[in-house]
Amino acid sequence: VNSIITLTTDFGLSDPYVGIMKGVILGINPGACIVDICHQVEAGSVINGAAMLEEAYGFFPKGTIHVAVIDPGVGGVRRPIVARTRDYFFVGPDNGLFWPIFEKETDVTVIHLTREAYFLPHVSRTFHGRDIFTPVAAHLSLGADLLSMGRTIMDPVVLRMPVAHQEGDVLHGQIIRMDHFGNLITNISEQDLVRFAATGHVTVIVGQMIIKDIKGAYSESAKGEALALMGSSGYLEIAVNQGRAGDLLGADSRRPTGAPVSIRLKAED
Amino acid sequence: VNSIITLTTDFGLSDPYVGIMKGVILGINPGACIVDICHQVEAGSVINGAAMLEEAYGFFPKGTIHVAVIDPGVGGVRRPIVARTRDYFFVGPDNGLFWPIFEKETDVTVIHLTREAYFLPHVSRTFHGRDIFTPVAAHLSLGADLLSMGRTIMDPVVLRMPVAHQEGDVLHGQIIRMDHFGNLITNISEQDLVRFAATGHVTVIVGQMIIKDIKGAYSESAKGEALALMGSSGYLEIAVNQGRAGDLLGADSRRPTGAPVSIRLKAED
Amino acid sequence: VNSIITLTTDFGLSDPYVGIMKGVILGINPGACIVDICHQVEAGSVINGAAMLEEAYGFFPKGTIHVAVIDPGVGGVRRPIVARTRDYFFVGPDNGLFWPIFEKETDVTVIHLTREAYFLPHVSRTFHGRDIFTPVAAHLSLGADLLSMGRTIMDPVVLRMPVAHQEGDVLHGQIIRMDHFGNLITNISEQDLVRFAATGHVTVIVGQMIIKDIKGAYSESAKGEALALMGSSGYLEIAVNQGRAGDLLGADSRRPTGAPVSIRLKAED
Questions:
Q1: Distance of CA A51 to the CA centre of its chain
Q2: Nearest-CA distance from A266 to chain B in Å?
Q3: Low-confidence residues of chain A, pLDDT below 70?
Q4: Neighbours of B244 (CB within 10 A)
């Protein structure tokens, strides 16, 4: 256990909620090192939050405690959980948010949080980030044993992330999110692509864009031209050199998540 | 005194101003722990800033120094102040920003900041957050005595916050702010409501929404349905399960602050 | 060397990229103190980023390591660099981002980063902030010698910032950026102005605004009235008391950067 606690939420930055959670952590462990991963997850989107967390968690040192609160079911029947993998801890709602990580990691222990001694004295039905998840994380950072926090569960909620699949000569994927630069990040991994077309001589079709080949860097295309490349997260990305790929999506520009992407072998191959 | 310093401003996040204030603090006390409460207070809105700070301050450990800079009168006649309550310190302009806290706390000492040794060497007339408030906070965090920073004042500026009031069978309140989720937070406290209708069998009217009863959690209403519940801040809140209550406000959607809320006893009671 | 590392980027706050860079730093130096200067630099605008960094860097304590990543040329031929001035370190792309600081400081050493031992094991072609710049900064904060990181270069990329110039009776400048309050910050420094008109009796013309004299504080003009004053950054600023000067720019309101500002001696002088 180290004392690094990360926060990933859909709370935005225009309210005092994130600051309040930090106050709660420091009230329990004044030596905690708190790091924001992102607070602008799409409101209520467990898939969006899960994807961000999966991209980020492994860059933190061993022992880091990751708190994530995308929690549309707060105050209802969903369980609050804490989990331990080989290198990290995770605290948040049991709604699938951590599922992609649980699937990838070995040695995952998941506990249903029920021991109230680790919560704030008064638990509201609308803000468990403040009342349950951050206090639990702060106690973990002081060395509390997660096995003392509740009973082990074997059935955490499964999150169905859309996966790329091949149909005849075509690899079908979709846009998972658009980033701040307008880059469109797909669910097609490097392995998916290599398995489909080891040569890399493919055509990528997204909206009305028809893109030839996979490039290595933004600057390998002309300014303003669309390109496809393996993004820093390990997934295929559609970008425009010094521009915004999202603007070229046509009808899907405003809600890019879920827009279809298809990859075909190039005819001349 | 601990070394936690919080920042609440209307500076936004697209300029270097907040980063500069952090540099100033660390230049004086490299061991300070700086926490952002919120930097997206509505520009120049002392009421909005005061409400956020009042909601957040008490979640921090004893000895925390709260700096707040919503300061439309900077460079004019308004006084810079530092205050001490039983558990906290406050530094900022004397424009009412801390008034709701002063009213609630006992043992409040307010000092007019005049001792220039605690300021930056050059004090501008446009950025006292950098030149006066954060240097003072950093010196406090090193143990400087606030009584050495200027003279005690007995007349800090009073902020008139709109309060809920009963008129015949109706409890009148208003929307104080809309949060990132589109939830509408009112000025009707749990005590106001209990005093008005101990049973909780009431009808809440906001814009064209007519909402029956007070619920306990977002998930107690159907998806997309408006509900009223006690929010995490201790005030009545209008929300939509997995939606945005602010969008249902009609004419007031764009400027929800100040929109009237009325509560009536249910006829059948 | 202290262990303060600042971050200035155009990554925005809706992706996990900034959080990932912090994880990388803490993985190398868990004791680092990481401070955000700004992550909302205009996407790809080296000039905008350079101006922010120049405004902020000097407020941090000696030994601070400033990382800046506005990097449209990532993955291409531009060099990654680290630099040392008398008091600070700078890490980022060699695209002019640090040029205004190099020009102002004496004793500047610039190194072309080539020693891969200081990078992450796998260096992508799209995210050098994560793979090169933050790991290098973290190693610097642990005391690594920048001379061991690559060879000294004498030809860092020069950034041509637009400068104010006099033409007959008129001083010509331009808007460099609009801040969160709608204030328009120009490239006319206090020295430029004093040299042009020691008396300060001037008329400032921006868009359709004609502003008389230079004021000392926002509150010296009537509410809603435009005024010109020396801003906290040491440059002439156009503001509106309790309003947004940017909204009065007319045709240039949406893209204020680059809009012309001219200053004339007042006829009656």
A1: 2
A2: 44
A3: 1, 267-269
A4: 18
The b/e string for A28-47 (b: 16+ C-beta within 10 A; e otherwise) is bbbebbbbbbbbbbebebbb
Distance between A13 CA and the closest CA of chain C, angstroms: 9
Please state, as a whole number, how many other Cβ atoms lie within 10 Å of the Cβ of residue A112: 16
Length of chain B: 269
The whole-number pLDDT of residue A88 equals 97
**What is the C-alpha separation between A34 and A65, in angstroms, rounded?**
10
In angstroms, what separates the C-alpha of B158 from chain A's closest C-alpha?
23
Beta-carbon-side half-sphere exposure of residue A252 (alpha carbons within 13 Å): 21
- Give the nearest partner residue to A75 out of B39, B64, B217, using CB atoms: B217
Using a CB–CB cut-off of 8 Å, the residues of B that contact A are 2, 4, 6, 8, 13, 33, 35-40, 52-53, 55-56, 59-61, 64, 179-181, 216-220, 229, 231-232, 237, 242
Task: Specify the pTM.
Answer: 0.95
pLDDT in single tens digits along all 269 residues of chain B: 579 999 999 999 999 999 999 999 999 999 999 999 999 999 999 999 999 999 999 999 999 999 999 999 999 999 999 999 999 999 999 999 999 999 999 899 999 999 999 999 999 999 999 999 999 999 999 999 999 999 999 999 999 988 999 998 999 999 999 999 999 999 999 999 999 987 778 999 998 899 998 999 888 889 999 999 999 989 999 999 889 999 888 777 777 888 999 999 886 54
CB A117 within 8 A of CB A132: no
Question: Best of B180, B225, B233 to disrupt the A interface by mutation (most A CBs within 10 Å)?
Answer: B180
Yes or no, beta carbons of C22 and A35 under 8 Å apart: yes
Spatial contact of C6 and C15, defined as CB atoms under 8 Å apart: no
DSSP string, C11-23: --SSSSHHHHHHH
- Kindly list the residues from chain B whose CB atom is less than 8 angstroms away from the CB atom of residue C55: 16, 20
Residue A77's pLDDT is what? 92
Q: Give the span between the Cα atoms of C23 and C129, in whole angstroms.
A: 12
Nearest to C40 among B14, B44, B130 (CB): B14
Contact between B8 and A14 under an 8 Å Cβ cutoff? The reply is no
- Minimum-distance CB partner of B60 among A26, A124, A126: A26
In 3-state terms chain A splits into helix, strand, coil percentages (rounded to 5) of 25, 30, 45
Name the helix (H) or strand (E) containing A195. Answer: helix A190-196
CB within 8 Å of A267: residues ≥ 6 apart: none
* Chains in contact with chain B (at least 3 beta-carbon pairs closer than 8 A): A, C
Q: Which residues of C touch B (CB under 8 A)?
A: 2, 4, 6, 8, 13, 33, 35-40, 52-53, 55-56, 59-61, 64, 179-181, 216-220, 229, 231-232, 237, 242
pLDDT digits (tens, 9 = 90+) for C193-218: 999 987 778 999 998 899 998 999 88
Asked whether the beta carbons of residue C38 and residue B19 sit closer than 8 angstroms, the reply is yes
CA–CA dist B60, B65 (Å, integer): 9
Taking contacts as CB-CB distances below 8 angstroms, the residues of chain A near C44 are 242
Res C1 pLDDT > 70: no
The full DSSP string for C85-143 is -SS-EEEEESSSTTHHHHHH-SS-EEEEE--GGGS-SS--SS-HIIIIIHHHHHHHHTT
